[in-house]
Amino acid sequence: MNQTPLPDNDISYTLTPIGIVESDFPDKFGVPRQAGLAPAAKASLVLLPPFDDPLAVRGLDAFSHLWLTFVFHLGPEQTGPGHWTPLVRPPRLGGNTRIGVFTSRSPNRPNRLGLSLVALVGIDTRDGVRLALRGGDLVSGTPVLDIKPYLPWADTASDAIGGFAPERPPRLPIEISPQADVVLSGRDDHDSLRQLIIQVLAQDPRPAYRKGAEVRVYGIRLRDVDVRFRVLEQAGQTLIRVVDIVAG
Amino acid sequence: MNQTPLPDNDISYTLTPIGIVESDFPDKFGVPRQAGLAPAAKASLVLLPPFDDPLAVRGLDAFSHLWLTFVFHLGPEQTGPGHWTPLVRPPRLGGNTRIGVFTSRSPNRPNRLGLSLVALVGIDTRDGVRLALRGGDLVSGTPVLDIKPYLPWADTASDAIGGFAPERPPRLPIEISPQADVVLSGRDDHDSLRQLIIQVLAQDPRPAYRKGAEVRVYGIRLRDVDVRFRVLEQAGQTLIRVVDIVAG
Hints:
The structure is a homodimer.
Chain A: E1 13-15, E2 19-23, E3 42-47, E4 65-71, E5 87-88, E6 99-100, E7 113-124, E8 130-134, E9 143-149, H1 152-155, E10 174-176, H2 178-185, H3 190-201, E11 218-222, E12 225-234, E13 237-247
Parallel strand pairs in A: 10-13
Antiparallel strand pairs in A: 2-3, 2-9, 3-8, 4-7, 4-9, 5-6, 7-8, 11-12, 12-13
């Protein structure tokens, strides 16, 4: 193998967002912890000038899925490449076990790059470029650095071993109170919002150190509503009950 | 959906390489046009200070595959985000058809980010961190910005439609001349180098506008050898003949 001399590590690259995400997730709390966990989640990727040229997406409608490379722009105040720790505690492991930052998909990583596989459901080029997406895990306002088509034969490792996260996380059952149900039923988007609430809450969006039933009422923002829920224990099973849905 | 006001597009992010690739591909010519096409291709990812902390890869050995986000550092002299064109001509389409840059995996794209799925075959933390990889498509010296574990359940779209590149490109048959065979047989790495040569040449690494048989002898560098080949037509079938292998 060729021995390439290592360069001084004072090289850096200046990258510019090509687009910004508008999504069902106005806040960080509640955003699914990987893409694909909430297929009902809608998002738009709005390309920014000068990247908003319809030619730049010519032929993209022949692909069903895209990779987005993005920046985890929320979080620690200081987000330079110098602000990271070698060990992180992923929620998937209960928030207590430390693993290497490169073993995780944590946002708190060198360069703060994220990667999500999303479904492409529409392309609108009437005024710039707006891609309609499903299944994302991106908070509204996320800056996107690149879009690539998903190539099934190059981007799939059929024999892969998935370490500490070998399969989808378990889902909690969701119960919707009559009061919340009335609010949902009165909305134009009642079907898709109901699906979104169920898919997001089933992941148990609480901080990893919270376990089992709690008296506390949590609130997460989805689209333009505040979804208030509690975590209950019923017949030895943890479940999430939506107690109220408040608009605005 | 939340309408996020678009920010001024004068935001930018400064990213620092976390590591550098040493691979079987000293030059750009001959590098497979996606990861996974040459499983015999070996590479090391050498982490750079301060990212070369063994803690940063703790637990990574429980994963079989990794995503590398990297920079296409070779190519046009000016590689800033401003240097791109909305349309590109991918080799896969014969080099004549223009598609959108975001419909392609072309290196000549805004921000020049690349994404490759590679197999992780070893981790050496005796002196910094060196990851042994297989199946990469990265030229030696490629700066890597991020490593993420491949999560089969989040990173696979089983029902995906792959647009203009729905499956692996076809492979040409390879013939190795007696002269080249003698050189190969005399090497310690004869088995793996032979596989590498076959896998790389089967992709027809010539520029896309070259088609069919040619008198010309091409040379590509793999590991420390120059592999010289011709493209022949035999019984109506295009094949590649390795005419010589020259060390050094």
